[in-house]
């Protein structure tokens, strides 16, 4: 079962995302702030996918994305935010996000995007594991 970190400061939106992920077989950990998300990521290195809102108090989602990408290069990261301008999308992708989804979003599309990213993350993990065995 894949583990997903959901970062959103709005409890109703976070709960909606969590319910949809769990009903599709994902294990989910939740964070309401950037600081909490980073703390969780550092204590649970088996997280494979992170869904990050951008507009947060304190450390924003872009900075969380940068730090996660630097610390966990194989982690899949999807920005999930109401910020819909082209420059917002470019900033998120340049910070290290693999995908960018604008709110409001379709739950089915989000699950499909998470599954697609999980296929890539799983492949990277397998290749990395095989490389370590060769050394």
Task: Tell me about this structure.
- By secondary structure, the chain is α/β, with parallel strands linked by helices.
- The chain has one domain: Rossmann fold, CATH 3.40.50.2300.
- It has five helices and five strands; from the N terminus they run E-H-E-H-E-H-E-H-E-H.
- The protein has helices at residues 11-23, 34-43, 61-71, 86-94, 107-134, and strands at 3-7, 27-31, 49-52, 76-81, 99-102.
- A five-stranded parallel β-sheet has the order 2-1-3-4-5, sandwiched between helices.
- Helix 1 links the parallel strand 1 (3-7) and strand 2.
- The longest helix is centred in the last third of the chain and has 28 residues, at 107-134.
- It starts with a strand and ends with a helix.
- The mean pLDDT is 93.
Which features would summarize this protein structure in a list?
single chain, 135 residues, alpha/beta, Rossmann fold, 5 strands, 53% helix
Provide a short characterization of the protein structure.
This protein has helices spanning 11-23, 34-43, 61-71, 86-94, 107-134, and strands at residues 3-7, 27-31, 49-52, 76-81, 99-102. It is an alpha/beta fold.
């Amino acid at each position: 079962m894949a583990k997903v970190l959901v970062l959103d400061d709005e409890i109703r939106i976070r709960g909606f995302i969590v319910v949809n992920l769990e009903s599709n077989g994902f294990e989910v950990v939740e964070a309401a702030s950037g600081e909490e998300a980073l703390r969780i990521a550092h204590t649970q290195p088996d997280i494979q996918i992170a869904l990050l809102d951008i507009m947060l108090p304190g450390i924003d989602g872009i900075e969380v994305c940068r730090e996660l990408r630097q610390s966990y290069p194989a982690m899949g990261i999807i920005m999930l935010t109401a910020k819909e301008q082209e420059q917002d999308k470019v900033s998120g992708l340049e910070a290290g996000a693999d995908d960018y989804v604008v709110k409001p979003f379709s739950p089915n599309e989000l699950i499909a995007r998470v599954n697609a990213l999980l296929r890539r993350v799983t492949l990277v993990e397998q290749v990395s594991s095989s490389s370590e065995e060769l050394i």
